[in-house]
Amino acid sequence: QVQLVESGGGLVQAGGSLRLSCAASGRTFSMYTMGWFRQAPGKEREFVAAVSRSGSSTFYADSVKGRFTISRDNAKNAVDLQMNSLKPEDTAVYYCGATLGGYSVSYYYAAGQYNYWGQGTQVTVSS
């Protein structure tokens, strides 16, 4: 089992940057494929990015490709999401998720595939 805690959200102007962090508990962090999702009011939870267990492979939603970067540090039990060139449509609560699945990272784009979630952190981008 793993517990996840997100941090780093806030209010930023369009074009700005934020870095989200997700701290995980437990000694088996490296066994989990990790993902970031987001949920805007009245909308379903949406895939943003995922990173493989080793950190060598990543996968992104088309809407964030080239602007966001996901990375992980297994020694620190942490996964980050660097968000650049933010747009008002990026406004949402961002969630960190973990899954024990061992398929290619591009397989893990649906929220239902993740076993554990953090409480979320709010990101607001003003125009």
Fold and architecture overview:
- 35% of the residues are buried.
- Strands 2, 4, 5, 6, 9, 10 and 11 form a seven-stranded mixed sheet that branches.
- It contains no helices and eleven strands.
- The chain starts with a strand and ends with a strand.
- It is globular and about 40 Å long.
Largest sheet: 7 strands, mixed
Shape from CA axes? globular
Mean pLDDT: 96
Radius of gyration: 13 Å
Question: What's the N-to-C terminus distance?
Answer: 40 Å
Quaternary: single chain
How many runs of DSSP E, i.e. beta strands?
11
Q: Which residues sit in consecutive blocks of at least 5 with pLDDT less than 50?
A: none
Helix content: under 10%
Note the beta-strand portion. over 45%
How would you spell out the order of helices and strands?
Answer: EEEEEEEEEEE
List the total number of helices: 0
Structural class: mainly beta
Write the layout of secondary structure elements.
Layout (H helix, E strand, L loop, with lengths): L3 E4 L2 E4 L4 E7 L8 E7 L6 E6 L6 E3 L7 E6 L4 E6 L8 E8 L16 E2 L3 E6 L1
Parallel strand pairs: 2-11
Antiparallel strand pairs: 1-3, 3-8, 4-5, 4-9, 5-6, 7-8, 9-10, 9-11
